[in-house]
Design brief:
Layout: H1 3-11, E1 17-21, H2 25-38, E2 48-53, H3 55-64, E3 71-76, H4 92-98, E4 100-104, E5 107-113, E6 118-123, E7 126-131, E8 137-143, E9 146-154, E10 156-160, H5 168-171, E11 183-189, E12 200-203, E13 208-213, E14 220-224, E15 227-229, E16 232-239, E17 245-249, H6 255-263
Parallel strand pairs: 1-2, 2-3, 3-17
Antiparallel strand pairs: 4-17, 5-6, 5-16, 7-10, 7-14, 8-9, 8-13, 10-11, 11-12, 13-16, 14-15
Length: about 270
Amino acid sequence: MSQLEAEVKRAIKCDKLAFLASETEEAQEALQKLSALYGNARTKEADVIIALGGDGLMLQTLHAFMGTGKPIYGMNRGSVGFLMNEYREEDLRERLQSADITTIHPLRMEVVDHAGYSHVARAINEVSLIRQTSQAARLKISVDDRVRLEELICDGCLVATPAGSTAYNLSAHGPILPISASLLALTPISAFRPRRWRGALLPNRAKVDIEVLDPLKRPVSAAADHTEIRNVAKVTVHEDSEVEGLMMFDSDHGWDERILAEMFRY
């Protein structure tokens, strides 16, 4: 547990809870029940933000409250729910008091598009580059200003955090990273040449530059979680260590255990 996590856990109050829910019937029903039991404070006044839905809502909530110091506790009212805790209506404040807290540092994506405009977005899971047409993308990859791959012909590639290593990264056959690992996963998506390249593990302080070769003929889009920029020319990715988000997990089923279970599931 980091110093920030320890300080937050010592100082956490659970008097004022704010509930946010997705639009599904199941999540809205949970919102009504929990609000009746525990009240529903304004998010600015809340001690803890409770997200009711799936992983998509959890990511949106983390983005919305990144850097505020407010911990986010999710309860699964969606489909996958890897980032969520089990939904139970009873003893919620007791669960929050004993919950473990994990600090998240997002990735910062800096994009220059075909027209020369710059864009910035943050990602909690991953930054991904994907071909926009039927033609494969051609990418040049540099790490800390040193070219490591002159040309990667592929459907795309991604840079994933430990938090995102079990999401798109895992589907692309990238490695699962322990949540406390100071690493990033650089993973190709359907690599054609070099066909045998399976990606790389990088220190979380690394800066990754991805240049799109032949961008007009072979256009590429870049996405930081839910934020997509099309027709990109160059993408720079690095961890934004100055920005923090706080996630809460039940102490008997924390994130370390979830990720470890995923490693032995396949």
